[in-house]
Each structure stands twice: as structure tokens, then as C-alpha cells.
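Hi R.,

Here's the chain you asked about this morning:
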Amino acid sequence: MTTITIASTKGGVGKSMLVSALSVLATQETRRVGIVDLDETLGSLSQWWALRGEPAAPYLMSREGALADDVQRYAAIFDWIFIDTSPYDLALIEEAIKIADAVVIPTRTSFFDAMGARQVSDLCREHGKPFGFVIVGYHKSVDDLAQQTEAALSAFGTVFKTKIMFDRCFMEAPIHGKTGPELNAKAQAEMAALWREVKELAAAAQGGAQ
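And here is the predicted structure, written out as C-alpha cells:
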């Protein structure tokens, strides 16, 4: 089993979007995919899951106790588990990082989002967890800011080559229980490329731990 935590201390940077899209891509390779929602607020991953139904849906894992214990209960059931964190509970973010095989840290092209991403990367280094930053909501009109954000974050760790573009499909899709890549071919190509990078990061980490 491989556990991927999506984390940031900023809200609205695309954590739930990434968990939903990456987990759906994972179901194309194996049906043994679980998701954990640590931010059960309005517009949450849990509500998206309820709207989605079948087919090609990950399994929404129930919370019964400590996060590490909950994930361990499913270790023999799933090949992949994706954890969607809340931006408001740093202790819970840290707990999700501690049990992850790899961490994906989304950020937009703003100072405040980048600082939130850096805070999560500090926790990853503290616990020896591999991580990668991903720029979401990218648009060519802010390419200079995206380059500055990427350069700044690269001083703290890996920045994934893939950027997730701004597109209305990511806003429209959850209303129908879908993901942006299921509605837009360009978004599909971007998310597939990011998924390959995430799998490579996790595989390298697991290989190094053996």
C-alpha cells in the first residue's frame, strides 16, 4: 500500500481537486483505491464522493480513531490511499505527513500560498518524507509570477514539472461528481503527467527505504 498525502496550510489551493482527480486516475489501474477526508466542511471531498457514485470511484474510508490506526486498518485492502488534509489543523496535517509515503504540496502563484507550502515542506523534512510542490491554477498571463514561485520553492525541495492550468472544468466537474480531467482533454493530459510524477516520487522513496 502506498499513501499519498495532499497538504497545505492554505485553503483553496486545490487539495480536494487533486485528491479526487489523482484517485480517479488510480482507479484506472486498480480498483483498490481509498480516500480520506480530513476536511469535512461544505464543498468537501466527502460530498463529491457521494455525488459521484460508480463507476471508477475510489472508496471513501471511514474515520474511527487515530488517523494512523485508521489507515493501518486498510493496509491489506488498498493499493493506494490519498489523504485530503484540512488547512486549519496543523497537528492533523503533521499526522497525515508522518504516515505518508509521499506528500504533494499544491500552491498557487501568490506569496501567501507559497509560504503555506513552505511550512508543509518543513514538516516533511522534519519527518523524513519525500515531497513535491505543484503549481495549480496556472495561467499564461501570470507566467512570470509562476516562474518566480517555482524558483523560490525549488530552494526548499522538488517542484513537479507539471503545472495544473486554470480551467472552468475544475469548478464545474465536482457539481456532477466528476473530476476536471474527465471533462477536458487538456486537463486530462496535465493530471496524467502529474500522476506519473507522483508515482515516481513514491516509488523512489519506497525503493530507498528497502
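One quick note: The chain has nine helices and eight strands.

Cheers,
M.
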